[in-house]
Amino acid sequence: MKRKILFLFVVLAMLLSACGGQPAQDIDAIVQATFQALTAQAPAATPVAQTGSISGELSYPSEGIPPLLVVAFNTTTGHYYWVQTAQNQSTYQIDNLPVGKYTVFAYALPDGKLVGAYDQFYVCGLHQGCNDLSLIEVDVVAGAITPNINPGDWYGDPTQWPPMPNDPSIPNLGVGGESVGTGGIAGQLSYPSSFIPAMMVVAFDVNSQSYQYVLTNENSSTYQIDGLAPGTYFVVAYPSDNSSYPGGYSQAVPCGLLATCTDHNLIPVEVKSGEVAQGINPGDFYAPPGTFPAAPAP
Fold this sequence. Notes:
- This protein is an alpha+beta fold.
- It folds into 2 domains: 51-181, Immunoglobulin-like; 183-277, Immunoglobulin-like.
- It is built from 4 helices and 18 strands.
- Strands 2, 3, 5, 6 and 7 form a 5-stranded antiparallel β-sheet that branches. Strands 12, 13, 15, 16 and 17 form a 5-stranded antiparallel β-sheet that branches. Strands 4-1-8 form a 3-stranded mixed β-sheet, with no helix packed on it.
- A hairpin with a 6-residue loop joins strand 5 and strand 6.
- The longest helix is centred in the N-terminal third of the chain and has 18 residues, at 2-19.
- The protein is elongated.
- The two termini are 51 Å apart.
């Protein structure tokens, strides 16, 4: 930018010396034309993102909700995008969806034999008088989250819906040879006590309000969150018996959690397609209250 301004002054000086006694309005016109030429050479605006998200609530015809594979099928390309949820997780969100129309299903893991659909029967209220069983196509708009897409019709014939794609243990799912990659985050758990309580370990997307979590048992010393879309995350562990005192993966962790480690800022964790980020240990239970995000509703 400095070089452009210097160049502009050089051009003006040459014009002034060349124009001699020409009227001032002619010089003004030349200067204006020079500014217009520089403006025309300005770089083009950054393209607008062409992806959006789908979110909603989860249900199941039982007392609890099993782990689910929630899948959004693009009705034009046939490609599908998915997120895996934990036991009794009541919400979901699928990010990085190309703009278009989708149908949404929830498959009960591990085998996917029971399927919940987002269709007119669910929207009608799942009553006997609801006779329309057609699927609802969901519009995904660039830069927006399409909410309230709840795949809750578990009462239809599972054979009428698409089968669960591949094996959910495979990190990449796709159609036609094009995969939709996800990654994971893993690490060790600790607690300033003689035991490690059961925890909810949460990965918060730093660029949106979405998150995913995994529930661990008492004295579990490790965790792993799978099915994460490529991106950047903060990781926080919430003890089930006292979630108001969470442990974060902060700068204090690699510092050694010593009394001199006073930087409690969360460390951004990069998740790449097909890879698991290792050594992400949410062990900073010494940060001042309110330093880390509040525990999300499970």
